[in-house]
């Protein structure tokens, strides 16, 4: 008996949507086959999860604030996505009090536009662009520079990092954290489970991307980018939330 050659029964490019059945339409309606509806549903499921996830991570978030060494009267630079809805702004204001000062830059829509419009930054990664948020800020202005969910969209962290360090006072900390999308370990975990692989593939196929297309900077890459600019650099990971920090030499 000759050897039987196994072939993948899924033609190249097949998505879970393509295998929806007539009985699915009987239960959910004919619009389950409509491409525009599929795109709308997939996008709605995918976006808008940051407030939920960061609230689930409240213990780690408290650790992040402690790493910033915030106190009454601190002057803080904060950048990230969905800052108000995630509760970051209120959290920091409670810690620095009425005498403190918070500069908050929410770049969520810029990040979304960069991904959905397939913008490719100078480093070659999709969804990245030049961070020039600090250009008008004087040197040594802030007691803490805090980046919450604005790591993966910068196209050059050596350049952007130099600016973040420049506006930070000597001896103070820069802290950056990201609930990651598309990191190698996350992709590996998804591929190990057929249900997760199905769900993620179904969503990604209708927002015209793959998990592998999301930009990603590992803590090791951030350490390399900030080499010579920060000391006492360290990192921490919890359930896909990666934290990186270091201190500006005094």
TrEMBL record:
The Methyltransferase type domain, residue ranges:
100-175
Q: Which GO terms describe its biological process?
A: methylation
Q: Specify the domain of life of the species encoding this protein.
A: Bacteria
Alphabetically sorted, this entry's keywords are:
Methyltransferase, Transferase
Which InterPro entries does the entry mention?
Answer: Methyltransf_11, SAM-dependent_MTases_sf
Q: Name one Pfam family in it.
A: Methyltransf_11
Entry's Gene Ontology molecular function annotations: methyltransferase activity
Q: What is this protein called?
A: Methyltransferase domain-containing protein
- Species of provenance: Chelativorans salis
């Amino acid at each position: 008996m000759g050897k039987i050659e196994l072939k993948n029964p899924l033609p190249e490019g097949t998505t879970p949507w393509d295998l929806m059945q007539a009985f699915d339409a009987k239960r959910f309606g004919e619009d389950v086959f409509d491409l525009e509806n599929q795109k709308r549903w997939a996008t709605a499921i995918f976006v808008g999860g940051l407030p939920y996830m960061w609230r689930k991570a409240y213990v780690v978030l408290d650790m992040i604030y402690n790493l910033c060494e915030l106190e009454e009267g601190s002057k803080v630079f904060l950048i990230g996505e969905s800052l108000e809805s995630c509760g970051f702004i209120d959290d920091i204001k409670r810690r620095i009090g009425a005498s403190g000062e918070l500069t908050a830059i929410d770049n969520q829509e810029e990040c979304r536009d960069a991904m959905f419009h397939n913008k490719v930054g100078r480093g070659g990664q999709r969804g990245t662009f030049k961070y020039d948020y600090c250009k008008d800020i004087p040197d040594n202005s802030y007691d803490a520079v805090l980046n919450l969910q604005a790591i993966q969209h910068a196209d050059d962290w050596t350049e952007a990092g130099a600016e973040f360090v420049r506006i930070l006072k000597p001896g103070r900390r820069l802290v950056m954290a990201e609930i990651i999308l598309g990191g190698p370990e996350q992709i590996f975990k998804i591929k190990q489970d057929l249900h997760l692989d199905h769900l993620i593939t179904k969503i990604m196929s209708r927002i015209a991307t793959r998990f592998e297309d999301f930009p990603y900077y590992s803590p090791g890459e951030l350490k390399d980018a900030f080499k010579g600019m920060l000391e006492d650099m360290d990192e921490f990971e919890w359930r896909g939330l990666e934290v990186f920090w270091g201190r500006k030499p005094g």
